């Protein structure tokens, strides 16, 4: 019997009609494996994963293969986005076995959860040197029947490789002060000077590495200095990504990654976290280097999220699929004749201008069709006529069958988007964006936060929320709520950030080694207790915590938060010294520690002083204004004026915009 029909995860429900007798992750599956004396077949993926769909169609929907799975295994399906703890420790095992990882991930385990074999995608027929999935099932069944002792020994060895990062010991010293500069130099060496990005295909939009470059440039500019190489690397990459097909030139927003070195052909899935991180990066790029085309990209990216990934009650949904109508990319591609037909009412000259503008050819650039892109990098500001073309093409595309929507709301990813949206609203004076950020904060606090202050991981309209949140959920919400408090001047958000930070420390802090465990001490005990340390597609839980706690600690004056952040940096100091680009988000915490945090307090009703405080991007500054909240920054502060402080030592108050700018500069 398939047991997935009532699950909250859209990914799990996609498999509810499979002939496979799927179990969700849990004790029932383990008990069944023990009773039947068969291995667990653990299958991990996510709803927007193209190759997960391929394996599902080829194997999990095939009654013959399903019968083989049901006869020999207890089959468990896991959504990696709902259970990143399960995903991370078994991915460590698969990487140790095969030297690589990815999704879909299939792991064969003892009934107690210890893995003994695994891999990623296996086809239904032998192909490209890969065995078929039925052949793998046969081999595992034969080994389980005849060589159980060998599998048991392998399981013990593999278990030691799972969550291996959790065994790191801290160093006495913090990462050196030049860690950010070292990372910037390494990024310059790794940069593709022709096409932008770092390394070869497939190319991922490394938002956190770009943020490190922009942080470095902002600091240099504040000191009246330049770094031409860092500016060149940043400009080339931001322009190349925004000109390629990975960017949606009609509707805004970025796809997950490019399969080629020149950013043309994307893996078409659109993830909330990518757009939260890249929207922030392009906003900062505009603020540091002044290119208004990047402000346009940031604005269009946020508008995409607000239009297509926003739940009516205020939460942000997780992703749009790569596939529509059963084929990857169908929603996004065009023929030249289709563009001519759509634009016929605008005049033949405009249609041909659009074809040139978007790099469209008669033969196409993707399986006979065209992915729209900008052949010439640079300014994206569209002349009025071309904007009419874009609007017409977008309206026509909206009539197509949309890609599948993963409509679960993940706390961690919403925290990332809340931070970006709040900062953008404050920077640009967008009250509509601030209202959307408030609505998001209200929704998250209402649906995903328990009365005791603990956060849950995921919510879905039909199933509610039930999975306990992880360290990354709490850390992302610390930062998101803090930035919403800075944007709105409302004390309740900062106070909620404090409550969340306290739960983060109480449930997740590793008091012996420093840093944060992924799972709380009140959560299910897995084979190993993971610790999320490396910044990959998203900031790690520890990087999020280090940055968020440092900023919040500066605002409210709580040394516990600063000390916990320093614990993360001591834990990872040696690793950062050798591989700083693997810790793109944590570089921000290193810079905050060594550069110090500037605290700005504006009292009374002085929107002009608030605007002056945020008129330049200062990555190491925090802002308190509006409603007072607890902490030394507000003590003895009154009147309509501003204070600039460092380490709670303040300059004399000022009451003019020029005076505040002078103190900040």
Structure, explained:
This protein is of the alpha+beta class and 665 residues long. The protein has four domains: 10-163, Glutaredoxin (3-Layer(aba) Sandwich), CATH 3.40.30; 190-407, no CATH class; 408-595, Glycosyltransferase (Alpha/alpha barrel); 598-664, no CATH class. Helices cover 48% and strands 9% of the residues. The strands form six sheets. It has a five-stranded mixed β-sheet, with helices on both faces. A hairpin with a 2-residue loop joins β10 (323-324) and β11 (327-328). It starts with 9 loop residues before the first helix and ends with a helix.
Structure keywords:
665 residues, alpha+beta, Glutaredoxin, Glycosyltransferase, 4 domains, five-stranded mixed sheet, 24 helices, 19 strands, 48% helix, 9% strand
């Amino acid at each position: 019997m398939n047991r997935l029909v009532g699950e909250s995860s859209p990914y799990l429900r996609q498999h509810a009609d499979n002939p496979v007798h799927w179990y969700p992750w849990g004790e029932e599956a383990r008990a069944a494996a023990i009773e039947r004396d068969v291995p667990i077949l653990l299958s991990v993926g996510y709803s927007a994963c193209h190759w997960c769909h391929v394996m599902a169609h080829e194997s999990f929907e095939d009654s013959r293969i399903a019968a083989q799975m049901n006869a020999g295994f207890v089959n468990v399906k896991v959504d990696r986005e709902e259970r990143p703890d399960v995903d991370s420790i078994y991915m460590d095992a698969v990487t140790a076995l095969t030297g690589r990882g990815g999704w879909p991930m299939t792991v064969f385990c003892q009934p107690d959860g210890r893995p003994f074999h695994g891999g990623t995608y296996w086809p239904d027929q032998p192909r490209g040197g890969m065995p078929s999935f039925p052949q793998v099932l046969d081999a595992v069944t034969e080994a389980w029947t005849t060589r159980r002792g060998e599998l048991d020994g392998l399981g013990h060895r593999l278990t030691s490789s799972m969550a291996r990062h959790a065994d790191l010991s801290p160093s006495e010293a913090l990462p050196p002060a030049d860690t950010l500069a070292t990372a910037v130099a390494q990024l310059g060496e790794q940069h593709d000077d022709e096409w932008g990005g770092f390394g070869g295909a497939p190319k991922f939009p490394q938002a956190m590495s770009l943020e490190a470059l922009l942080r470095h440039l902002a600091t240099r500019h504040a000191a009246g200095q330049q770094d031409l190489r860092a500016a060149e690397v940043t400009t080339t990459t931001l322009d190349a990504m925004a000109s390629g097909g990975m960017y949606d030139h009609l509707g805004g927003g970025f796809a997950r990654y490019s399969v080629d070195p020149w950013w043309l052909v994307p893996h078409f899935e659109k993830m909330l976290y990518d757009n939260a991180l890249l929207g922030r990066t392009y906003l900062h790029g505009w603020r540091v280097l002044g290119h208004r085309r990047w402000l346009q990209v940031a604005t269009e990216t946020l508008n995409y999220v607000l239009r297509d990934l926003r739940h009516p009650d205020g939460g942000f949904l997780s992703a749009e699929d790569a596939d529509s109508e059963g084929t990857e990319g169908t929603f996004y591609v065009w023929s030249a004749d289709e563009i001519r037909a759509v634009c016929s009412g605008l005049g033949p000259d405009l249609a041909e201008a659009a074809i040139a503008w978007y790099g469209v050819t008669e033969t196409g650039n993707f399986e006979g069709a065209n992915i729209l892109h900008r052949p010439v990098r640079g300014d994206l500001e569209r002349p009025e006529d071309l904007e009419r073309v874009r609007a017409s093409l977008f309206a026509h595309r909206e009539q197509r069958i949309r890609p599948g929507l993963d409509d679960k709301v993940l706390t961690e990813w919403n925290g990332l988007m809340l931070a970006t949206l709040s900062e953008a609203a404050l920077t640009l004076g967008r009250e509509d964006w601030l209202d959307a950020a408030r609505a998001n904060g209200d929704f998250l606090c209402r649906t995903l936060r328990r009365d005791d202050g603990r956060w849950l991981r995921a919510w879905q309209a039909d199933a509610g929320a039930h999975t306990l949140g992880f360290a990354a959920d709490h850390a992302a919400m610390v930062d998101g709520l803090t930035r919403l408090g800075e944007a709105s001047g409302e004390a309740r958000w900062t106070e909620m950030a404090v409550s969340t930070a306290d739960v983060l420390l109480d449930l997740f802090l590793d008091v012996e080694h420093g840093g944060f465990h992924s799972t709380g001490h009140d959560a299910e005990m897995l084979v190993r207790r993971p610790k999320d340390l490396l910044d990959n597609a998203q900031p790690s839980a520890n990087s999020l915590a280090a940055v968020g706690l440092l900023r919040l600690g500066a605002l409210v004056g709580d040394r516990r938060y600063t000390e916990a952040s320093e614990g993360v940096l001591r834990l990872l100091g040696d690793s950062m010294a050798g591989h700083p680009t693997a810790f793109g988000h944590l570089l921000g915490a290193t810079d905050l520690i060594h550069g110090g945090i500037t605290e700005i307090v504006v009292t009374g009703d002085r929107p002009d002083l608030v605007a002056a405080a945020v008129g330049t991007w200062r990555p190491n500054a925090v802002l308190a204004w509006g409603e007072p909240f607890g902490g030394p920054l507000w003590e003895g502060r009154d009147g309509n004026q501003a204070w600039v402080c460092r380490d709670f030592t303040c300059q004399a108050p000022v009451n003019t915009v020029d005076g505040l700018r002078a103190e900040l500069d």
